[in-house]
Amino acid sequence: MSNELKTATGRIIQTLYREGHPDKAILAGLRNAPTITSQRAQAVWPILMANLDEYQLSQREDGVPTSEEVAVYTAIRFYAIYQQGNNESPVYAPAWGKDAEGVTLFGALGNLRGNDDLRIATDRRVQPLLATTNVTGVINGLTHLVSILKANSGLQKIDFAALAQDLYWLQGSYEQASRIRLRWGQQYFSVKQADAQTEGEKN
């Protein structure tokens, strides 16, 4: 399931990027729509829903989005925030596999810890987030962290598709969510400080 979401998220991001000619209206809508149910999110619905299987879409009468929809939407929204103002090169790349050129989100945040000033500020945001069990609270915290990365990271390429996979499992059982938080902590705290500013380090 989660691997399918990862693949779908990668496809959506490539569609949004359009080889350096992104649809700015859709990306602006994403940046300004905190949830998939926000009115401004409607611009991306056709792309998102075309890339998800029917069983991954909400079938509920009340329209509450599925875990898959929330995970993929959140990841592509973070991509839109991070890509803004940079049409020259994509800011998304896989962190694993033969085409791996990117880092995980928390690996990229860990790279910021090589700067003493950024370490304190980033730790203050990451550590409470890793203790948060509420999915909405986690997503809100991640939004701030993506903005910090955009401002300070030199645009490391981030594996937003892997983030969608994590966000899906985060909405599962308590045990699944705990494993995701542990993995994020491992990615964040395991970056060696001597290499902390090495762009593209895999985590």
Give the SSE order as H and E letters: HHHHHHHHH
- The pLDDT mean sits at 89
Which outline best applies? globular
The helix tally amounts to: 9
Strand tally is 0
In the CATH hierarchy, the third-tier topology is known as Peroxidase, domain 1
The name of the CATH architecture is Orthogonal Bundle
List its traits.
single chain; 203 residues; mainly alpha; Peroxidase, domain 1; 0% strand; globular; disordered C terminus
Please tell me about this protein's structure.
With 203 residues, the protein is mostly helical. It has a single domain (2-194), classed as Orthogonal Bundle (Peroxidase, domain 1). It is built from nine helices and no strands. It has helices spanning 2-17, 24-31, 45-50, 67-83, 105-111, 116-130, 135-152, 160-170, 174-189. Helix 2 (24-31) packs across helix 4, helix 4 packs antiparallel against helix 8 and helix 6 packs antiparallel against helix 7 (135-152). The longest helix has 18 residues, at 135-152. It is globular, with a radius of gyration of 16 Å. It starts with a helix and ends in a 14-residue tail after the last helix. Mean pLDDT is 89; it is low at 194-202.
Topology (SSEs and partners):
Blueprint: H1 2-17, H2 24-31, H3 45-50, H4 67-83, H5 105-111, H6 116-130, H7 135-152, H8 160-170, H9 174-189
Helix pairs in contact: 1-4, 1-8, 2-4, 4-7, 4-8, 5-9, 6-7, 8-9
Tell me briefly what this model is.
With 203 residues, the chain is an all-alpha fold. It has helices spanning 2-17, 24-31, 45-50, 67-83, 105-111, 116-130, 135-152, 160-170, 174-189.
